Amino acid sequence: MLRAALDKSVINSLTTQYWRVSVVDVTTSTQTALATRAIAGKVKPGDVITANFQRAGRGRMSRTFEAPKNSALLFSFYLKPQRKKEDWGWISLIAGASVAQVLKKYNATVKWPNDILIKEKKVSGLISEIHGEGVVVGIGINVGMTIGELPVPTATSLAIEGATNIDRNHLLANVLNEFESIFTSWDLGDESITGLYASLCSTLGTKVQIHYPNDLIEKGIAMCISARGELILDSGTHVQAGDVVHLR
Questions:
Q1: Which one Pfam family would you cite for this protein (predicted)?
Q2: Which residues of 211-222 are buried (b: 16+ CB within 10 A; e: fewer)?
Q3: pTM of the full predicted structure?
Q4: Which among 6, 29, 57, 161 counts the fewest CB atoms within 10 Å?
């Protein structure tokens, strides 16, 4: 079941009318494909592209990745938030919290801003990009990958963590429905995501090392999340972007 083929009709039957899911067998990147549509004005809120295989998957900080066919859940979706753009930093955090909620039975947590960890190993990551008046969010979840198929030793998969009865169709539907519920409330002004995210975030209260895009490194204790989704350190620094390493 972990490597069952994606089925458009099954996925759409399990999601609300907000979502319109398209399935492709192979693509360069679901993120690139949907972003291209967004730039051309050929996309609507709720459009989703998911693929069995990506030739050049895209992650945060301009990284690329590749997973064996059918071994991961790879998808991107388009949103058009109503809140002011200064608040849009929360969208990727909402996406991370949604995945962690769905994977709660595996004790999944969020490493700020949106890496999903199980036993401190990465099982899922995502990217969020603004295109015009909307946002394209791309998510990858390691589902059926074996130890030998993992890209790095610090990664894991649901199969490795004991999952046996998950198929990617239901997993995608569950993540989309969870995201819709949280996002819709947030977009209407509800701030309860702040508490939910904090309850799922394993970074808070932890000594961390921040690797910034400009190669600077800073250490500190992660104290809380700002109103704009930034990570606040005990030094008072507001981290907007960077790789976080949990120090023990």
A1: BPL_LplA_LipB
A2: eeeeeeeeebeb
A3: 0.93
A4: 161
